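In full, the data.
>
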Amino acid sequence: MEQVIETYSAEETYALGKKIGENAKPGQVYSLIGDLGVGKTVFTQGVAAGLGISEPVSSPTFTILQIYEEGRLPFYHFDVYRIGDIEEMEEIGYEDCFYGEGICLVEWADLIEEILPENHVRITIAKELSSGFDYRTIRIEQEQTETGIGTGIE
């Protein structure tokens, strides 16, 4: 299953993330791929808002994992840009998050692809300056849906 969504502003990117957060179900894992400055944090802030999280959300670049528990589901926000070795993920206890009752969003997930659950939702954000400074294409893919979890934007 694949969807491609175009956004033309940070507000639209945020709104898409919010819609996913509003529809998220326990156990969903989202891998978030995209270059620096494409809007991964804005998208993630939208997901958090959709979960009912009101505290500020920023990328946990140096802490790797930030946990938010005030929303309707626990939200595990990973930024694995600085992961040097998969063993660091084991030290953090990623499995409790990936296979728990909350939702996970993993920025730079392509760096840890070998440990992502098979049924994760892959979200790729890309910008194309020729279409405008704030234009983004957001590709949402899920290879396996037999779990019934879905992408969160159905």
Notes: The mean pLDDT is 89. The domain at 2-142 is CATH 3.40.50.300 (Rossmann fold).
